[in-house]
Amino acid sequence: MKNLKIGDTHAGGLIFYLDPGSDQHGLVCAPYDQAERIESNDADIICKSLRLNGYSDWRLPSNDELSLMYTNLHTAGLGGFTSNYYWSSTAYNADMMWSRYFGFGFPENDGAYNPGCARAVRVF
Prior knowledge:
The protein is built from two helices and nine strands; from the N terminus they run ββββααβββββ. By secondary structure, it is of the alpha+beta class.
């Protein structure tokens, strides 16, 4: 089996997380943004309906997964992320969702109707 590492192209996307003790299971994100300047509900719908590179089980990342994408890909210059807000699927409260600003990496709790970017993820 191939020894996979963070940043490799695999299973339809870019690896941003590998399970501890295994280089054969983890998480990938789509190689490009699915949308920009979109509300969180629409971001969720776009990611769940994505068909990319032979896979149809894409979804919006959790807040923790978004943090890993920032740390493991963006800070290494991988993934082509923009210096914008990216939506997560994690709710802050009834009216707000967690997002992360990729310009500086800090998490935000934003109104679900504010514009942000969507980048889908999947498990492999």
